[in-house]
Design goal:
- By secondary structure, this protein is α/β, with parallel strands linked by helices.
- The chain has three domains: 2-245, Ribonuclease Z/Hydroxyacylglutathione hydrolase-like (Metallo-beta-lactamase, Chain A), CATH 3.60.15; 253-352, Rhodanese-like domain (Oxidized Rhodanese, domain 1); 362-474, Oxidized Rhodanese, domain 1.
- It contains 16 helices and 22 strands.
- The protein has a six-stranded mixed sheet with strand order 1-2-3-4-5-6. The protein has a six-stranded mixed sheet with strand order 7-8-9-10-11-12.
- Helix 3 (157-170) crosses helix 5 and helix 9 packs across helix 10 (321-332).
- The longest helix is centred in the middle third of the chain and has 14 residues, at 157-170.
């Protein structure tokens, strides 16, 4: 048996290539699929099957790309209602791949159509008694967590949480302890709240250490899982719909066009958004007025989709052409394809053309301390982070919802005419937030370098929310 996990760090996404006897299957592929084709060729395998464990909401899948490019057959849970050619699988259905046997388990809960895949190698001694060696769990069971239950337009979070309890207790937890668990996401994914950085585990380890698999009633599980669910990014529903309909081929996407500074300004004046992909320090030193900074060094595509959405026309600002190519590819993985072009020559060319630049001062935590009481402090981390500890007197507005709040004209407690210092954990999210604030008319905005990490490392005081949550789900 050939078994390989591919991990896309920027999306915290795991996909799999599994093969035997010259035949292969890909599970939960990313949008750009050449890595699977190249590896299959190197291993002497032909990809004949593609399995989706569910309709992914946080990225656009490569299932249709593989199907159209090489004729692979797609398999998906029967409840998905997919609109492209596929095999609708039910509980207990099996697929043979060489000497491997893949058995499908219907495990609704994260989504109604979620499935898991039991993998058995008929050449191994364990198969004499019919025992699987691995289970691919999609977003049903993560390492240290389970999938969020609020992504369905047809089921309430409590209904899905109840279904997830049943799927875990009656399907996955009945498997032998030694069965290896391979999920579709790791730490950093928005599909769960307490995901481990570990890439795989076993059923036995998860029964021992995963909080969601501990002994509790169905009602207690439902209450726990639905308590204080984080805001769901608006693009999740759109990506799920794209995956249900069948994404367009990447080759059909418009090529990125080089734009002179004046051509770029024309696009921006017509309503396009400048997406600056450089590090926060470079963005702060000088950027196109009104641009939004989402650096390639972090979860770039996820934050771009969350902060900007899928439909605005974009002009990419990057350090060089190679980073332009990387940025547009990563955007396509979440369904952002309205890229009008990129600023040829970057910010230097813009400045050389005599066009104005805007700056965002980068301040240290010690400078922030000196101005406490004078500057407003805006914390753009998530609610669990804020409750665990925050700067005294800080105003909280997560980056996830900042754009929506600004567009609605509602940012409680923040005066646009007074200085505001923005911080997050380390400075990545706060730089994006600074760009948003400046684009909405906030006059004096500072980015706190190093964020709360630098503040606490300097021994400066923090506060804990009165209702600080100690449950894993609040992290």
């Amino acid at each position: 048996m050939y078994f390989q996990q591919f991990y896309l760090t920027c999306l915290a996404q795991a996909s799999y290539l599994i093969g035997s006897e010259g035949e292969a299957v890909v599970v939960d592929p990313q949008r750009d699929v050449d890595l699977y084709l190249d590896e299959a060729k190197a291993q002497g395998l032909e990809i004949k099957h593609v399995i989706e464990t569910h309709l992914h909401a946080d990225f656009v899948s490569g299932h249709r790309e593989l199907a159209l490019r090489i004729g692979a057959k797609i398999y998906l849970g029967a409840a998905a209602g997919a609109k492209f050619d596929h095999v609708a699988v039910h509980d207990g259905d099996e697929l043979a791949v060489g000497k491997l046997r893949l058995r499908f388990l219907e495990t609704p809960g994260h989504t109604p159509e979620s499935i898991c895949i039991l993998l058995t190698d008929t050449e191994t001694a364990t198969d004499v008694v019919g025992r699987p060696s691995k289970v691919l769990t999609g977003d049903t069971l993560f390492i240290g967590d389970v999938g969020r239950p609020d992504l369905s337009p047809t089921h309430s979070p409590r209904e899905l949480a109840g279904l997830l309890y049943d799927s875990l207790r009656h399907k996955l937890m009945t498997l032998p302890d030694g069965v290896e668990v391979y999920p579709a996401h790791g730490a950093g994914s928005l599909c769960g709240k307490n995901l481990s950085p570990e890439r795989w585990s076993t059923i036995g380890q998860q029964k021992q250490f995963n909080y969601a698999l501990q002994e509790m009633s169905r009602d207690a599980f439902v209450n726990m899982l639905t308590a204080e669910l984080p805001d769901r990014p608006e693009y999740f529903a759109e990506d799920a719909a794209i995956n249900r309909d069948g994404p367009a081929l990447l080759a059909e996407s418009a090529a990125t066009t080089a734009l002179t500074p004046h051509a770029a300004r024309t696009k921006l004046e017509a309503g396009a958004v400048a997406l600056d992909t450089r590090p926060a320090s470079l963005f702060g030193a000088g950027h196109l007025p009104g641009s939004i900074n989402i650096g390639l060094g972090g979860q770039y595509a996820t934050w771009a989709a969350t902060v900007i959405g899928l439909h605005k026309i974009l002009v990419i600002v990057a350090e060089d052409d190679e980073k332009v190519e990387e940025s547009t590819l990563r955007l396509s993985r979440v369904g952002i394809e309205n890229v009008a072009g990129y600023l040829q020559g970057g910010v230097e060319a813009w400045e050389a053309a005599g066009l104005p630049l805007e700056t965002t001062p980068q301040v240290s935590v010690h400078q922030l301390q000196e101005h406490q009481g004078e500057w407003q402090v805006l914390d753009v981390r998530r609610i669990g982070e804020f409750r665990a500890s925050h700067l005294p007197g800080a105003i909280h507005q997560p980056l996830d919802t900042l754009s929506k709040a600004l567009e609605a004209g509602e940012l409680p407690g923040v005066d646009r005419n007074k200085p505001v210092a923005v911080h997050c954990k380390g400075g990545y999210r706060s730089s994006a937030a600074c760009g948003l604030l400046q684009a909405h008319g906030y006059r004096e905005v500072y980015n706190v370098v190093g964020g709360l990490d630098a503040w606490t490392a300097s021994g400066l005081p923090v506060e804990v929310a009165a209702e600080s949550c100690s449950k894993p789900l609040c992290a």
